[in-house]
Design brief:
Structural class: alpha/beta
Mean pLDDT: 96
Number of domains: 2
Helix content: 40-55%
Distance between the termini: 32 Å
Order of helices and strands: EHEHEHEEHHHEHEHEHHHH
Low-confidence stretches: none
CATH superfamily of the largest domain: NAD(P)-binding Rossmann-like Domain
Number of helices: 12
Length: 307
């Protein structure tokens, strides 16, 4: 089941309930897909700047479905929640903020973040959240100007900036670089380091289906992110290349293999295969589908994509 276009916090209730009650994979791309690809990019960005995931201070700008899911996944991957600062429309969230108690009933997932994060109890908005932070992940409203250059200047050395609003990022990449950011990522294909969900869900679906997994867990998403990061690292990391692109189609069978193997390890797979068997299955399925699409375009059954 692939969930689409469900508002927050309903999307959290629905995904959680279906995961518990269904014995087939359920997926919400706005949450899981975005979080998986963002984690992969973050892993490699941290390698380039020589920082460890459990040491960094992370500011999340926006508390919608994407960033709440990102928070959950990067915490599972090693980020210290106490060093995380989450900013919503009213500012930085923290346990003692006057409106937080109401979240227990209206948005328990956001409430959980308010309790776990911001150990220093920093008060304020985006400028205060960015001060001294190593990483900012913005999934808020289109810019430019949502994040200002002077706020980037206040971040730690070798700052990592993910400005992922579409169609215009919260700050232009060149402005973030001019302000001292070491690595900048956006959601757009015309800038380097695009965080694109299309790098996640096709391979994750393929791996889950090939082993007939009962569900898709956060551990399986982390396995996918780790493989995505590994593929980019093998190709050669740079400030402008921290994550593969969709043109690297070999990403998908490898990602599928990582996901399927994690499902087998977790006891969630109905079909068990060796790693080589799983890779061959995914590779051939994807290769055959690509060849079929190309043949249909050649024969005029479907139009070719625009140049």
């Amino acid at each position: 089941i692939n969930l689409e276009d469900i508002e927050k916090p309903k999307c959290f209730y629905i995904l959680e309930k279906l995961r518990k009650e269904m014995n087939i994979p359920v997926w919400h791309d706005d949450q899981q897909g975005t979080a998986t690809v963002t984690l992969a990019a973050l892993m490699n960005a941290l390698k380039l700047v020589g920082k460890k995931i459990n040491d960094v201070v992370v500011a999340l700008i926006g508390a919608g479905a994407a960033n709440i899911a990102i928070a959950r996944l990067i915490i599972s991957a090693g980020v210290d929640p106490g060093k995380m600062r989450v900013v919503d429309t009213k500012g930085i969230i923290y346990a003692e903020r006057e409106d937080v108690d109401k979240l227990q009933f209206s948005d328990p997932w956001k409430y959980d973040l308010a309790i776990k994060t911001n150990r220093e109890k920093i008060v304020g908005d985006i400028p205060e959240a960015l001060k001294g932070a190593d990483v900012v992940i913005a999934m808020s409203k289109p810019g430019p100007g949502v994040i200002k250059k002077e706020w980037i200047k206040s971040m730690a050395d070798d700052a990592i900036v993910f400005a992922c609003a579409n169609p215009i990022p919260e700050i232009w990449p060149w402005e973030a670089k001019e302000a001292g950011a070491k690595i900048v990522s956006t959601g757009r294909s015309d800038f380097p380091n695009q965080v694109n969900n299309s790098l996640g869900f096709p391979g994750i679906f393929r791996g889950a289906l090939d082993v007939r997994a009962k569900t898709i867990t956060d551990e399986m998403c982390i396995a996918a992110a780790t493989e995505l990061a590994k593929i980019a690292e093998e190709k050669g990391l740079s400030e402008d290349y921290i994550i593969p692109t969709m043109e690297d189609w070999e990403v998908y069978p490898r990602e599928a293999t990582a996901v399927g193997m994690k499902a087998i390890e977790l006891g969630l797979a109905r079909v068990k295969m060796s790693e080589d068997e799983l890779y061959e299955t995914a590779y051939n399925t994807i290769k055959n589908a690509r060849e079929l699409v190309h043949m249909m375009m050649r024969e005029g059954f479907i139009p070719s994509p625009p140049e």
